[in-house]
Every structure is written in structure tokens, then in C-alpha cells.
Amino acid sequence: xxxxxxxxxxxxxxxxxxxxxxxxxxxxxxxxxxxxxxxxxxxxxxxxxxxxxxxxxxxxxxxxxxxxxxxxxxxxxxxxxxxxxxxxxxxxxxxxxxxxxxxxxxxxx
Length: 109
Description:
The protein is α+β, with helices and mostly antiparallel strands. The chain has one domain (2-108): Alpha-Beta Plaits, CATH 3.30.70. Helix content is 44%, strand content 31%. The protein has helices at 15-31, 61-69, 73-79, 82-85, 98-108, and strands spanning 2-10, 35-41, 49-56, 86-95. Strand 2 (35-41) and strand 3 (49-56) form a beta hairpin. The two termini are 21 Å apart.
């Protein structure tokens, strides 16, 4: 499994608008294989920054899922509003380390 961290730097006052947009985009992305593990907004640090952590089936699903989602009319409609909300978006693809897996296994016990 792969993980992707999306850092979304919002324009001032646009976090709530981004949150509304994402409530429509997340189900489309999840129906195509991604899973949103969590979403957070900074309260300390660079303000108006949203962090979305996604679980992905594999690294190739970044492009393939976005291409599939772009064919969905609702996704296209809502995604068009992202430009109004965002100053910058950075995607980081990550792999889980062994000690993280071990800690998760201990939590399940």
C-alpha cells in the first residue's frame, strides 16, 4: 500500500469553501480505489493549510484514479472550484516504514 499526503495551501478565507468542494470529490476518489485516512487544517504553522492523507492501492493509482475521476461530470464541476480556493497544491507519495506497521499491529491487540 502507498500513501499520498496532499498539502493544500488555501487562499485567505477559503478553507470552508475547500471543505465543501472536498465533500463532493472524496466519494468519487474513494469509489475508484483511494481511501481518505484523514484531513486536517493547521492551527499552528502556515495558516490556511489543509493536509489530506490518502491510502492508495499503489503508486500508479495517483494518475490512473485522477484520470478516471476527471471523466465524472460531478467531479469536474466541483474540481473547477479548486482554482479559486488554492494558492498551491503539493502531492507527496510515501511508503510505510516497518516500525509504523509494528506500532499499528500493537494497537490492534
